[in-house]
Amino acid sequence: MAFLSPISLSHDPPTSLIAPRTIDSTQIFGSKLKSGELQHTQLRLTANSRTTPGLTMSASREPPALTQEHRNNKLETVVETESGTDLFDNLKRRFLSFKKHKYMENLEHYEQLAKNQEPKFMVIACADSRVCPSAILGFQPGESFTIRNIANLVPPFEKGPSETNAALDFSVNTLKVENILVIGHSCCGGIRALMSMEGEGDSSNFIHNWVIHGKNAKLKTKAAASNLNFDQQCKHCEKESINRSLLNLLTYPWIEEKVREGVLSIHGGYYDFVDCTFEKWTMDYKETSLSEEDGKISVKDRLFWC
């Protein structure tokens, strides 16, 4: 019987210690693979590990197809993370630009704002991302106290607490603003939802429960513009709801008192972002009817900016 000579450590290269070893592929991949597949996977892993070290362990435990899938998923995650990072990097650049060109150049003004605020305007605007009052009308820090909600609605006083009337209370009674400006806009999704509702809408729907505050504006629109198509009715209601909100402001005793005394003015505004125009009007308190159901607003100082 012939015997194999022992391996000589002094004559064979170091790799001879590794090459003869038999590796059970099931220990690595969970199923048997041909040697060619094993070699291919090892080479791919080596190449990938140079650029993506985090893939080494995962790839060594999965079959080739899963290795590729894992790598793709990992890269997709990296891309998504980078996109999110880019968004906040952009915000960071904007903030630092604001600090350098606005804050530091007007440091005395911002130091005064840190002590107190005395805005002249209380602005009620829609939450729509296309309708930012500061961007449209150029309000600077300290100039307007702003609340934004769906469809820029003002609930009547008797409907009880909401974030909108809390903001009204603070701005009128604490900050002593001189003007309340309600800004509506074109293509308002909240008004479209209101006009699309059947009856009182779905009581379990948050949007329906909110826009129902504009019900009187909807009824007036249906009565006055029934001959118009739906889109035109919505546009009509966008403006009618502003006036209805102006009337609702007068249901708050402390607002009505200040308007009557002439220390507070109420204004409506309509921004059409389709053709970039702006309408502004002021409520004529003396000529306005305050009837709850049939209240009719009288306006003055109407302006159109285009």
Account of the 3D structure:
With 306 residues, the protein is of the alpha/beta class. Helices cover 47% and strands 13% of the residues. It has a 6-stranded mixed beta sheet with strand order 2-1-3-4-5-6, with helices on one face. β4 and β5 form a beta hairpin. α10 crosses α11. It is globular. The chain starts with 24 loop residues before the first helix and ends with a strand.
Radius of gyration: 34 Å
Q: What share of residues is helical?
A: 40-55%
How many helices does DSSP assign? 12
Distance between the termini: 106 Å
The helix/strand series, from N terminus to C terminus, equals HHHHHEHEHEHHHHHEEE
Instruction: Give the CA-based shape.
Output: globular
Oligomer: single chain
Portion in beta strands: 5-15%
Q: Overall mean pLDDT score?
A: 81
Outline the biggest β-sheet. Answer: 6 strands, mixed
User: Strand arrangement, largest sheet?
Assistant: 2-1-3-4-5-6
Would you count the extended β strands for me? Answer: 6
Strand pairing plus helix content: what structural class? alpha/beta
Low-confidence region ranges: 1-64
